[in-house]
């Protein structure tokens, strides 16, 4: 029964964890699209002396997407092996990510001038992204809530799977079969063959002489 529960938890954790991977892939694709648009604009003369370090928003977007993909890989490996250390690292990383997202969301909601705290973005990608989010605010609101729920559920599943421990059932079954196969050779309670104890019979010389005749 524990093996079936462990297998189900592994599958559910992998499915839930894949949501973060999909978000990371979407962010990487969007970051590559922004980079492509910027390279197209670089062909104009007004961008001849452009500072490449000003692409901080695009680089940050790509880095966050790659980080989510790495976290997804770690979650899949930890769920498949049910390793306690791997699951602990996965839970800590998800918790820190959830805490960081909460702090960023609180700063955006409570601070109306939050854009002034960020470096200047000459590419204009930050402004375009903000307008895109504001025009589809309801959609992004549900996406954000889904990501938060997925992260919390992932932590809960990882905690349960870590409490169950790794699956060593197959190894124990092999050991039991091997022990059962060896048991008759080392069991001291096995019945020994019955011997009839009687007086020894010696061959006399006359019997030996009759046999030779």
From TrEMBL:
Ordered alphabetically, the record's keywords are:
Membrane, Transmembrane, Transmembrane helix
Q: Which domain of life is it from?
A: Eukaryota
For this UniProt entry, which segments traverse the membrane?
Answer: 12-33, 53-75, 87-110, 139-161
The record ties this protein, via InterPro entries, to: Tetraspanin/Peripherin
Q: Key word Lyase present in the record?
A: no
Q: How does it sit in the membrane?
A: Multi-pass membrane protein
Any matching Pfam family: Tetraspanin
Under which name does UniProt file this protein? TETRASPANIN-19-LIKE
């Amino acid at each position: 029964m524990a093996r079936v529960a462990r297998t189900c938890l592994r599958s559910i954790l992998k499915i839930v964890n894949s949501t973060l991977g999909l978000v990371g892939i979407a962010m990487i694709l969007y970051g590559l699209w922004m980079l492509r648009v910027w390279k197209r604009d670089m062909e104009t003369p007004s961008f001849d002396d452009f500072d490449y370090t000003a692409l901080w928003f695009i680089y940050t977007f790509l880095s966050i997407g790659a980080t989510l993909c790495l976290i997804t890989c770690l979650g899949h490996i930890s769920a498949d092996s049910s390793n306690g250390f791997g699951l602990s690292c996965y839970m800590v990383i998800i918790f820190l990510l959830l805490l960081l997202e909460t702090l960023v969301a609180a700063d955006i909601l409570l601070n109306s001038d939050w854009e002034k705290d960020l470096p200047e973005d000459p590419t204009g990608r930050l402004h375009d992204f903000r307008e895109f989010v504001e025009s589809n605010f309801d959609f992004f609101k549900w996406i954000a809530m889904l990501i938060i729920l997925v992260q919390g559920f992932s932590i809960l599943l990882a905690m349960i799977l870590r409490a169950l421990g790794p699956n060593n059932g197959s190894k124990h079954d092999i050991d039991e079969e091997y022990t059962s196969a060896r048991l008759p050779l080392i069991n001291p309670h096995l019945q020994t063959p019955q011997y009839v104890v009687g007086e020894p019979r010696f061959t006399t010389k006359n019997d030996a002489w009759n046999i030779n005749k």
